[in-house]
Amino acid sequence: MAEAALPLRRQQTAEEILEPSPLSKLRKRIFKNYSFLIGAIILILILVVAVLAPVFEALGLIQDPYAQDLAKRLQNPFWHEKKVDPDHVFGTDKVGRDYLSRLVYGAQISLLIGFSTMIISGSIGTVLGVTAGYFGGRVDMVVNFIINTRLAMPVFLVAMAAVVAFGASLWVVILVLGLFLWDRFAVVMRSITMQARDLDYVKAARALGCSPPYIIVREIFPNVLSSLTVVATVEMANAILLEAALSFLGFGVQAPTPSWGLMLNEGREYMFFSPWLLALPGTCLFLLVLAINLFGDGLRDVTLERER
Amino acid sequence: MTAALETVDVSCVFQVNQGFMKGSKPLRAVNGVSLKIPKGQVVGLVGESGCGKSTMASILLGLQEPTSGEVLYSGESAGSFDGKDIARRIQPIFQDPYSSLNPTKSIHSIVSLPLRIHNVGDPADWDRKVYDILDLVGLPRRVAQSYPSQLSGGQRQRVAIARALIMRPEVVICDEPTSALDVSVQSQILNLLQDLRQELGLTYLLISHNLAVVEHMADRVAVMYLGRIVEEADADTLFRDPRHPYTKALLGSVLTPDPSLGVPDTHLGTVFPNPIDPPLGCSFHPRCSACMDICSAQTPMPVTEGDHMTECHLYAPQEAVAV
Question: pTM for this structure?
Fold first, then answer.
């Protein structure tokens, strides 16, 4: 049987044998991509610190973020030329709470909000977008209508209204942001699914008798994953900033929970005399959002090259 | 001989949106096509871009429901099959091997997908079958662990052929199987298709705009223009004695290797008619070099002489009398 085709089989060439494995190529791409590396390092650092915060506290490296000490209000951080308290490296806030431990615990809040919002809004948006993109026609029209309805609603005002209605808490913020930030997921997933649907490998899968759920999950989804990660990181950064903004205005996380946005608000009155009260949480916010965006961009570049 | 695949007066109409609040117009991509693909033969389907060749392929594969008409698989109506039954009988090979293989899957996973979808055998069986089919299409077994991006265009097309053949279908629909490949690789793929046809007793529908490929492969050729088959005959007859002016123009448009002869003048012009708004009468008349008064008024009827079918007023019986 096979003999007839034999003359067509060719020997492997040297390049094929010497070609590096996909894994080593991936490793090479990761270490050549600086934005990915920098983003990943900052992100991992913040993540480790946030997750291990209770351990650090138990070890005595940081103090209780809620413990007030009115005798030691507004202590200077370590770089200040005036008197510095060795117990509080980053100084204290207006009621004498250790600023370093509040920043560390604030990272927990920011990351928690970022991740949960991304997962809730990502699932809603991806399901809507992929369904609309794959099935098209009426389904697409309905989903488009839902997306337009959502885009017509200002997130900030709705979030404030929800907080007034249900009371302010971490979970209300997460739910409101999660239920509102899916529009970009839906729009992006819809358009790339539409492109992928008309590719020949999807047609081939349909010609093989694969069911639509199988095609969507096994054939299309792995190919749109890299775009999804980019949207996910952008939205995560967006959610973190929105939480900070809501907390700053008093509609988000409530005192005394340490949240970077809330710390910005609390430090506002002392801006001219103790500027670090604003500079420190602001810098943390900036670094985290920057790291997430760098990481997301780099991740796309690193993973996309495999598909080409 | 029963036809492995047959269409009876198949039409496919798409509603094309004209813009906001303007309603939609019908586009007849395929307009009353009856085509027989006898078992074990190669039927070529030729025509310009946009004439409905690929829509025909989709209809035959069961991907596109025809608006009217019927598709018969081995003489049985398509209605009595579900998608998986059709998939077992008919498999496609697509034009572009760069988009027909999922870039995130290994070759093993791509080639064994039909077995997994149709629940044939167990994983050990799959391995054996995948290696068998890779041998058959002339690929080294080690590519099973590679990804499509690591293969050349010709190798990818072999993978696509392997995927199409692993379930041993009766009919393979080759939609421009070589037009995305280098010339040197084209002949390899065509020879492979020829060999496989003899070995496995396959039936091909070869869709192409490359007349040399069709002449090389096909037993019978159908020429399509604007959703209709305008001429159908045995390959020898058609290439030796084309009757329809469009077929003549197509055959005349083949470039010769001699550059001093220049680009052949086919009198076709460059304007392909808008399929949303087809010309009255014979749809080819605005470009036809032998256009008569009747052509713009009346749609020609198919005229059959032996097994040579032509749809043109030049060969209509009453015209023959008049001349």
Answer: 0.80
